[in-house]
Amino acid sequence: MVDAVLFDLDGVIVDSEPVWEEVRRAYVAAHGGAWQPDTQRRLMGMSTGEWAAYLSGELGVGRTAEQVAAEVVGEMTSRYLAHVPLIDGADTAVRRLAARWPLGLASSSPTRLIAAALDATGLADAFGATLSTEETARGKPAPDVWLAVAARLGVDPARCVAIEDSSNGVRSAAAAGCRVVAVPHGSYPLDPDAEALAAVLLPSIDALTPELVERL
Fold this sequence. Notes:
6-stranded parallel sheet; alpha/beta; globular
């Protein structure tokens, strides 16, 4: 039995991973750092503090982690004010499930970007609890954010279905005990170990129906 459905934001509801990559790549290049072949894969799921420290330290950006976080999030906020890239069908899928179950949101985005995205997409009222990994000890792939959102909804994570797109996100939700529905982004396929952790692999968010969730 399913007691709640928990969503990731980036890559599931908004197509923001390419925007994050573009903004952070440009920032690293502008501040003397060196983007690595595995950088984007490593960044997906990191909390704000984690990725800012990574850019500042390992990638050699000549700014403190605090400066990196403030400046990159500032640029992302500007992008969202201009346009939030809602994934086709995501709002409909969220509403379909909200009619049946309490919903939570467990995101690696900063709190202010979560608010901006949900306001722009008109989905803020669909979620009973939203949480950024800014507010947890560890980002994904650690399970902290899923456990905390489930606690805020008053449900057992093992009785939750989590909707994720990234390898670290799937690992995180599975580690929390959730049954995971994976909807991978075409540009960022799942690693084999993460794919094996997913209960269901969907081609698009359109395929996410109450009937599918009930079968889990």
